[in-house]
Amino acid sequence: MSHEIICVAQMRAIDEAAARAGVPTRALMEKAGRAVADVVASRFTPRPTAILCGPGNNGGDGWVAARALQERGWPVWVETLVPIETLAGDAADAARAWAGDVHAVGEDKPMAELFIDALFGAGLSKPLSGEAARLARALARAPERVVAVDVPSGLDGDSGQENGGLCFRAGITVTFVCKKPAHVLMPGRAFCGEVVVADIGVPQEVMETQAIELFENDPSLWRFPWPDANTHKHARGHVMVASGGRMRTGAARLAARGALRVGAGLVTVLSPPDAVAENAAHLTAIMLREVASASDLAEAIEAADCVIAGPAFGTTSEHGVFLQAALGAPSRAPIVLDADALTLLAPVKGGLDERDVLTPHVGEFKRAFPGVLEGASNRIDAARIAAARAGCVVLLKGPDTVVASPSGRTVVNTTGDAHLASAGSGDVLAGLIGGLIAQGMASFAAAAAAAWLHGKSGEALGPGMIAEDVPEILPQILKALRASGVR
Fold first, then answer.
1. CATH superfamily name and code, 8-212
2. How does pLDDT run across 55-92, given as a tens digit for each residue?
3. 219-483 CATH
4. Are the C-beta atoms of 258 and 446 separated by less than 8 Å?
5. Under DSSP, is residue 401 helix (H, G, I), strand (E, B) or coil?
6. Are 441 and 222 in contact (CB under 8 A)?
7. What angle do CA 260, 262, 267 make, to 5 degrees?
């Protein structure tokens, strides 16, 4: 299964390149429409079905799907948004090949139990209006009765946002060649339901003409650092986590626990003097070291394979000196910068190591990179701009976490659910990233793997979970990952 994601412009370019390679666009439409029919027939028993067809090629896919379902004996008809005589090109050819009933959208017609939304595709850039808008509102109460073609009509394919605040909701969306950003970015992902990617016969050499650097996060994209029979703890890396002062230590311990659970051989909490006793009372397998000055911190991290700085660290000028000492340490390890470290660095102007990882939530991102999120077309572009500006990996947290490298390679994570929105959850994520980097994973891959594992942990825990639960369920998640054959 391909995990590539393409934007609307790339999909258009692929269609054009396929035609130049000798694959007629009409043939692609035929395969697309039949793929929709195949999905419908595999998910539903025959029932009265209305195919909602719009004026363009998305509507053409609908005309083909109607014919393919009719051939299977389904009670199906077409409801067209525009008169058939106004259609042009492949859509007109597809409509002419339909021999069944046709109604105008909005006129009296049979009662449908299932609707195939082929009104508008991913390239629509204006709000729904008229009968299309009325149908979107009427069917919003029953998305399980809607199968969308490409994207639910009204959903912008690149941003994942509703054009004008309105789009269809679908239980299933059938798209072609690859997913689009709208299938993985919120809120679009929620509006699409189950997304099925259909192969419509685009030649591989055509796909290779596209420089695709965007992927849906998946274990096939990274190699997990499984230990072998000869592995010892020192070979699995040493993570050091900078703790906050007295009464501000829990976040660092959550990060440390995450690093240990994900496989780091050694984990040390670096504690200011006033918090040593507090940290010592809670730590067992995790080691503890007192750091009383910035020079102490710089000296300590010389033995680290990854450093985590920021969780409840503090934001005073003194903390800023400590952070700069860590960043400026000679031959330093990669640093995962979270929470307070992001505040201390804001605005981020560059100068970080390409092995470093920034892990902002939206508020922290806006402070670290003023105006970037507001000016970008979507979260993917925002994260890419930030990574290029900072010169390191950026993980923009959210229900559609985006991980971007300075080179532009990007993944969107789709594991996890709303139960992960809990105090301390992000601290554990920082620990997972640090633990994987310490074991030798490249920082971009480590951030992607950590986001996937973090999400899977949240899915497994569900309602009632708290941040402390995430490291504890991780062995179960890792066992399932290994059993799946991922290496």
1. YjeF N-terminal domain (3.40.50.10260)
2. 999 999 999 999 999 999 999 999 999 999 999 999 99
3. 3.40.1190.20
4. no
5. coil
6. yes
7. 20
